[in-house]
Amino acid sequence: MAFFMDPEVLSSDKIMEVFYIVMGLMSIYAGVHNLRDRSNPSRYGTFVFWTLLGVVIAFGRWIPPMIDGLLIVIMVIPAIAQRVKPGKAAEPTDAEVEGNFRRIGQKVFIPALAIGVFAIAGALIPAIGALAGCCIGVFVSAIILWAFNRANTLAVFLGDSERLLSAMGPLCMLPMLLASLGAIFDAAGVGDVIARIVGGVIPAGNRTVGIIVFALGMMLFTMIMGNAFAAITVMTVGIGAPFVLSLGTDPAVVGILALTCGYCGTLLTPMAANFNIVPVAMLQMKDRMGVIKNQVLPAFVMIVVQIIYMLIAC
Amino acid sequence: MEYLVLLGIAVVIVGFALRLDSILIVFLAAIVTALLGNLGIDGFLTTLGESFVSNRSVALFIIILLVTGTLERNGLKQAAAELIGKAKGATPGIIIALYGVMRLVFAAFNVSFGGVAGFVRPIIMPMAVGAIEATGHKPDEDYVEQLKGMASGMENVAWFFGQVLFVGTSGAILVKTTLAPLGYDVDLLQLAIIEIPVALIAVGVTAAYYIIKDARLRRKFYGGESGVRKPDSVKEGE
């Protein structure tokens, strides 16, 4: 309670803390639901993962950091052991969806777009912030959906979110773990070591060379790893910070464009199987590289466009 | 040997390249780096706990899931199908390009219609093949194969570059939380605004490329008369 009363804490952080409790409870609900679901092949592992994740998200601020760390270690054990699985899902029937659509029609776009609108509105009001605005938008969206169709009760929202969360599985935690990995790299001094090594190869203090190496490095690293999120953590600490950002370039431009340079790599690699190989199977294509071949030209155009953008904007 | 702390990076690169379990890789890399960087077990747990809690914003997608499934239940995909279905009489290339534009606009609001499995296969591909048949031609297998590749490519380009326009997307939050310990504070709205020209160029270039490629393919497979609508009663090559 002291946290919410503290005048030193930003109001946007206080609002977010409330929403973190909501998110944590949603995750705990997924854990308990799966524990009670006898059709789930890994009830206990699934329960441990989602429940501990929920505890850390909801109450992590008030738990000593070392205990948080310990809870996270215990949480990922069932995930690594492939013991986090979805149970039976109560998917909506075609008849129900069709009936709802006939009643609501194109108006369903209103609650769908509400979240983004509120995120922008929140970003423009410093006391709220983009993240809290987005969360408020979620609740506005839910209320509009309920107004359209009274069958959308709290139980329906909770059930649907549990179904999607369970279906996404533990991999949805990867960005959070990668962000933590970045912090550990930083604490262990990885950035300094890379800066010293790369400094011998590319001339430090040369903004143009730094930007080009960072942009192409993001693309190539993403191609090798198949995941731009994994690449951005390593590359920003190792190349971005010492060779581009330290020269006084705009961290927002360089930071976010590096991510989309990584996406150019995602378009080119069979390692990003979900985007480039799974569709081949789904659409019953003959050429395994049939999707990637159609993405080569856009990827190369975009890497060039973004390097030029960074050079001009910085 | 101070270079030993780089072993963690090697673990990430080799691990992902070998397609090992992603969570296992990240965890191994974290432990290896922490121990070689002399953080010790205590330091590892404390840094992990602290950073995870301060990076909880990356889990924002969880609260969005509260409505995602229920939006689907109330006909979001059907509404999107009806919207794109208004493109009557368009060529396959134009249908794919229009899908890219629609996908981009909705991705900027973090609204998805189900990707290749949920939307391209059941809605976009039948529309594209229907457009070939509407001109009185039989869909050629190799031509349709190219259309499938283009539709998937449009899906990927529009989604990747569109979702970064959403203020609160995981990617932008990850960039923000990666820059924070390095001493750089960036604003999420600013990150989204920076990406607007990139997203427009990405979808514009890809859409134009596919429209041109499709026109070439139609000339190759159906000769110069492509795009000329034949009377509906005429059916060829059944």
Automatic annotation (TrEMBL), chain A:
**Family annotation (InterPro entries):** DUF979
Keyword annotations for this protein, in alphabetical order, are: Membrane, Transmembrane, Transmembrane helix
Residues spanning the membrane: 15-32, 44-63, 104-124, 130-148, 164-185, 197-221, 253-275, 296-313
Any Pfam family: DUF979
- State the source organism's domain of life: Bacteria
User: What does UniProt list as this organism's lineage?
Assistant: Bacteria, Bacillati, Actinomycetota, Actinomycetes, Bifidobacteriales
Q: Write down what this protein is called.
A: DUF979 domain-containing protein
TrEMBL record, chain B:
Transmembrane helix among the record's keywords? yes
Ordered alphabetically, the record's keywords are: Membrane, Transmembrane, Transmembrane helix
Give the InterPro entries listed for this entry.
DUF969 (IPR010374)
Q: Does the keyword Membrane apply?
A: yes
Q: Which Pfam families match?
A: DUF969 (PF06149)
TM segments? 7-32, 52-71, 92-113, 157-176, 188-212
What is this protein identified as? Putative membrane protein
Q: Which organism is it from?
A: Bifidobacterium pullorum subsp. gallinarum
The top of its lineage is: Bacteria, Bacillati, Actinomycetota, Actinomycetes, Bifidobacteriales
